[in-house]
Amino acid sequence: MGERILEMENITVQFPGVLALDGVHFEAYRGEVNVLLGENGAGKSTIMKVLAGVNTGYTGTVRYKGEEIVCKSIHEQMGRGISIIFQETNLLGNLTVAENIFLGAYCTRKGGGVDWKRMNAGARRLLDSIGSDIPERAPVSSLSVGQAQMVEIAKALRTQADILIMDEPTSALTEKEVEGLFHIIAQLKAAGVAIVYITHRLKEILEIGDRLTVLRDGKSIKSLPVKGLTVDDMVELMVGRDVSEQFPRIPCTPGGAVLEVRGLTRAGVLHEVSFEARAGEIVCFYGLMGAGRTELMRAIFGADKYDGGQVLVDGKPVPARGCRAAKDAGIALLTEDRKRQGLILGDAVGRNIALTNLGGVMNRFGLSAKKEAAVCGALAQSVRVKTPSLRQPVGLLSGGNQQKVVIAKWLNTASRVVIFDEPTRGIDVGAKVEIYKIMNELKRQGKAVVMVSSELVEAIGMCDRMYVMHDGRITAQFDSPEGLTEEAIMKAAVATA
Ligand SMILES: Nc1ncnc2c1ncn2[C@@H]1O[C@H](COP(=O)(O)OP(=O)(O)OP(=O)(O)O)[C@@H](O)[C@H]1O
Ligand SMILES: [Mg+2]
Predict the structure, then answer these.
(1) What confidence tens digit (pLDDT) does each residue in 96-123 have?
(2) Which of 296, 390, 434, 489 is the most buried (most CB within 10 A)?
(3) pTM greater than 0.85
(4) 84 with 126, same domain?
């Protein structure tokens, strides 16, 4: 067992209307991966933000390297050797990758002024060390979510940390990037760094975790070694009940094609993609990160232009005139990137849900608060959004609960085709099942459901049919979930077939 470097005792955080932490105890040890586990809204990010000096309104004691400290600011905590990789990226889009990595600590030349050469080279070294080929001079706004996450990681590694907090670092990474990250974690462990690791991917915990602390509803439930645990054990510790049916598949009796995509092409991105989704079925798109699945869905939804091909709903061509036309034609897209595309963070939960269908919450005089509360309340409840009220700004919800609001929002439309792009990313096991049940409900209503997923077990577990993409092309099609093997799918995903 490593040396105990941190002891947080009786930590309580009260936000307006939400007791986020209620006397929590947490310890971290050098040279170990200290995992924090809990459902969405359990308080994982909140306690780590206390430690990182972001949430300063807490009570309780924090002992670090044997001394009692007060966590007052990020700057001070970083100086003490405590670094955090935030769950939602906090990068500045207009600046380059290198500028973001060195933010607040630009390299300077002897005579004054910024030493761009040294800074860019330093950024390059950091990125190389984590196996990332992102160009260091690219503006951050041009990066994908996964790439931005890699930049966050590089940034956190810039300063020598004794405690490195990673809040869901892998939720948007490619398999290669995850591998690179685990490699770095092993190196940091060997160097005696205490890693605090938060994830909803339970298998990762078995792979790299040493010690586990479970939070439920802002309280500590248990701390124990990871060794000897199974995924089922962790699920039970986390939700306090048995989640037996992880993939609640229902029978499928598909009708005619609702969505038809013919030869969709976008130079350099999509190559002659054709497929269909029928009424009452769930069609999964599997592929590795960067295979072009998100780009395909964005093109179908009119968010990106395409150079050739056609999209039809119920046999009628959808004019390629942007999202509005696609929405009017009956297409809904739940984006993978809630922060940039899905939500207005400063607006209330209820208003965010209402936005997709304002007609439904209006009366003769305009927006009806009563209607909004009724319609949005029911939708928020159907996906079990954890919020003190519908008036709470979405930005104040936990990451997973923000994702649930995105879903509730799109359930509020009369769409024919509902496209889910990585709907369960960052979502806890219990809530995942809720989302699958919502997909089932849409399927039962005779809608065509399309799901993009990077999790193979989920794709196999929920699909009625599957398409696999690689490099902007469909490389395989499976017309039944029966007999689907991980090998066949992976082969198509890396396109070695
Ligand atoms: N600034 C804030 N103001 C008000 N409430 C907040 C704020 N930050 C967090 N909360 C609430 O505190 C609770 C704990 O949130 P936290 O972000 O710590 O959850 P989490 O365990 O990290 O969940 P997830 O797995 O979804 O990321 C939630 O109910 C959340 O809505
Ligand atoms: Mg969180």
Answers:
(1) 999 999 887 787 888 888 888 889 999 9
(2) 296
(3) no
(4) yes
